[in-house]
């Protein structure tokens, strides 16, 4: 408990240093705070931190208040539900999350504020911006760690290139995925045009890890699987591991593809 409390105090002190005018009120033990959303100070949120935070339990959003001038733009009850979804999505046991939460709120509210939109359309836009589970529909390999770098692959079923890119964009919203050094990818899909002809699409992306994407594309080609997108995330540990990285990339990619239910024809 003491460790949790110290981590919470350190987190609140950091937030006060980063946003000195935004932390409006806190109880003595910092278990409840009221903070104005950075860049959107017309919204105040009240957050409760349970004794088990951050070890096992996430914070809870107690209340959302909007100044009268903005009350016709956003509905407080809706924002409370939405903000709690964001809070749940950024929390990972053992890691403090308040800064990540406030950063996500800034992005969500910024995207949702467009001139000429009514309240209903804004709220619908906000719903679409925050996926509840970025990993929905993805199948993961076991991670491989080598000299400080960690490799982990994810595979999913796709129906088109647009579907592939959309799922990848959603996956990248996860807090841990935003911290990776490289997200290499490869995909293959078949679609029918208006004349009923089957068109094949396949491509890859190295994302800075030279030749990695093309090797992954070669892998799923020899596996003879279609309607698949596979990505390999690498968290770089500072040490270069040479050609071994390609062995880890292919190994995790193949495992994720098989776990996604694609049959290896080889």
TrEMBL record:
<dbReference type="GO" id="GO:0006446">
    <property type="term" value="P:regulation of translational initiation"/>
</dbReference>
<feature type="domain" description="RWD">
    <location>
        <begin position="10"/>
        <end position="112"/>
    </location>
</feature>
<protein>
    <submittedName>
        <fullName>Similar to Saccharomyces cerevisiae YCR059C YIH1 Protein that inhibits activation of Gcn2p</fullName>
    </submittedName>
</protein>
<comment type="similarity">
    <text>Belongs to the IMPACT family.</text>
</comment>
<keyword id="KW-0963">Cytoplasm</keyword>
<dbReference type="InterPro" id="IPR020568">
    <property type="entry name" value="Ribosomal_Su5_D2-typ_SF"/>
</dbReference>
<dbReference type="Pfam" id="PF01205">
    <property type="entry name" value="Impact_N"/>
</dbReference>
<dbReference type="InterPro" id="IPR006575">
    <property type="entry name" value="RWD_dom"/>
</dbReference>
<keyword id="KW-0678">Repressor</keyword>
<dbReference type="InterPro" id="IPR036956">
    <property type="entry name" value="Impact_N_sf"/>
</dbReference>
<keyword id="KW-0346">Stress response</keyword>
<dbReference type="Pfam" id="PF05773">
    <property type="entry name" value="RWD"/>
</dbReference>
<dbReference type="InterPro" id="IPR016135">
    <property type="entry name" value="UBQ-conjugating_enzyme/RWD"/>
</dbReference>
<dbReference type="InterPro" id="IPR023582">
    <property type="entry name" value="Impact"/>
</dbReference>
<dbReference type="GO" id="GO:0005737">
    <property type="term" value="C:cytoplasm"/>
</dbReference>
<dbReference type="GO" id="GO:0140469">
    <property type="term" value="P:GCN2-mediated signaling"/>
</dbReference>
<dbReference type="InterPro" id="IPR020569">
    <property type="entry name" value="UPF0029_Impact_CS"/>
</dbReference>
<dbReference type="InterPro" id="IPR001498">
    <property type="entry name" value="Impact_N"/>
</dbReference>
<keyword id="KW-0810">Translation regulation</keyword>
